[in-house]
Amino acid sequence: MTAADTFPRHSARTQGFSLGAPRNFTVAPDGQRVLFLRSSSGTDRSNALWMLDTGAGAEHRVADPAQLDDTGTTSAAELARRERLRERASGITAYAVDDSARRVAFTLSGELFVAEPESGLLRRLPARYPAADPRPDGTGTRVAYTSQGGLRVIGFDGSGDRALVEPEHERVQWGCAEFIAAEEMSRSRGYWWAPDGTTILAARVDESGVAQWNLADPTDPARPPRTMPYPAAGEANAAVTLELLRVDDAKFGQRTPVRWDSDAHPYLVAAHWSEHGRPLLAVQSRDQRSQLVLAVDPDTGKTTELHRETDPHWIEIKTGWPAWTPGGGLARISAIDGAYRLLVDGDDWTGPALQVRAILDIGPTDVLVSASAEDPTQVHVYRVTEAGARRVSEQDGVHSATRGGPVTVLSSSGVERLHGTVRVFREEEPIAEITSLAETSTITPRVELLRLGARELCSALLLPHGHRPEHGRLPVLLDPYGGPQAQRVLRRQQGYLTPQWFAEQGFAVLVTDGRGTGGRGPDWDRAVAGDLAGPPLQDQVDALHACAAERTDLDLDRVGIRGWSFGGYLAALAVLRRPDVFHAAVAGAPVCDWRLYDTHYTERYLGDPNRDPETYTANSLLRMAPELRRELLLVHGTVDDNVVFAHSLRLSEALTSAGRPHTLLPLPGVTHMPTSESKSENLLLLQLDFLRRALGLPTASSEAAAPVE
Fold it and tell me: Rounded to two decimals, what is the model's pTM?
């Protein structure tokens, strides 16, 4: 950090102080190697591939984009993948390994590379350009990858590149995840190798029936708009089918369709293929109230139903299941009597005390899961057996883990320090710690975690350093996300830097997770069924009033709110529906009309707009436009392909038609989240200036200095 850097500039340059931190861990089954990604410094956006030798405890770089003639060119398919994952880094952003983790494949600028971390081999393969999503087979003999809508296979030595299957027309893709799978189901892949490397289970995505939307850059009117298929609520989805494709030379390209009732259960939620059993599928009905686990016969494509789950509202998708245990048991996560539970062959292994979030790994005798107990702000790693669950992570905070054989990589973060630790254990003995090169902020969050009101809403209060009640009352800034399954209030420092910066500008900042935000069980999640406006907004109001009842230095006559995406919707909703409480709002990329948002997310909570139009009308910001009496700043990227720019434009049009003053700030060329350093920095400063003006505060442009602790 230079002497001239302000916090907004420093945060933008380091991408929220995330650059330089290790990520994307893979542990070899023998425990001898840990692969991971990390950039070379806290301001370097380009990730390299690294390996930790767990025996020697030494790290070495396997592949460095700077030495591979990285042009920075990114294909449309790769850009779409990164956008769905909210990936802001460059260089090597993903990789895949064979079963032994001795051979690795990745792409860089659309070129396909393979490596052997132990031997030092690193080569570019003569694959079709642009290559995406390469994955070695279990033996490391071949690498499959997608390119131009087709699925191809090439030898690890670079021999025999050929198409396994090609698209029949331009709106068909093989081996890819369709938009809603990647955006809403956490399924970013579309093909799976057989354990013996003879067959690939591949998705065929046909977007012929999906409406085509145009994303234009208004700053370059000569450039044709980018056309994209977008499945809006109530409209057609992509047709997703599966086929078994033979890869062995004698039967190369032989195709066997996988058959299930896709009319009743059209959504392919997940797939799993391991040496412990037949391929597994999780498929879901359009209304998401029914989900099946199916086993696939790899010879005939016939499916057998293993489990059927129903819910009067929706089935919540949890990562890591369905999967086989080494003994052939079916592992899954289900909502039962108020808790998300781990079940193996129908037996409950976790009981009512844990809210299981994900299956992290399945070992010979246990299952590794992440879960929350009585405190939803903490996420811990548990080793679960039929006899019960034992917590692996010890310190308060948020933890995750990756395991291979006897070695576990435990990633931990807490409120005491900005950057977490990545510790490596053999059995239960620590053997190494993976280095983080991330920079440290000059701002240290002064965060107080609270449980507010009758619903004990998890909240975080941040005040200026040095502030005491006798110094006077502070204007209040609410800074929520507030949407389903997205917690902001967690026991880790990383999420509170920007709120603390706003606090240093003279605000009391309150962050609250209301109903639906996760961590507290199925009943809490489903409290927003049919109503994304009422409960989320009421919880923000209740938390504010409960906090103010305890703190006399919160000024309820000057209350602002800011948010992005669902948080942007909630911020705009706040000044439209509750002007008695909120006096100004910054709404970034808000979902203003739910009919313009995607099928899987929107229909889960609001149903089908063709059958329930009143529900959509009741949750729309457009109908509330004439009620605006407060200051509102709308901020939106012009080429956002998730919450399209039309949302803010339609709300602005409705406000203008109603004669309601407001401010619209378009971000030319920006997608759902700003990534450039200058835009990220100045966007914070512009929000601050707007809030100060709207709430009648001094508008000094200089940033208040935050003490270093």
Answer: 0.95
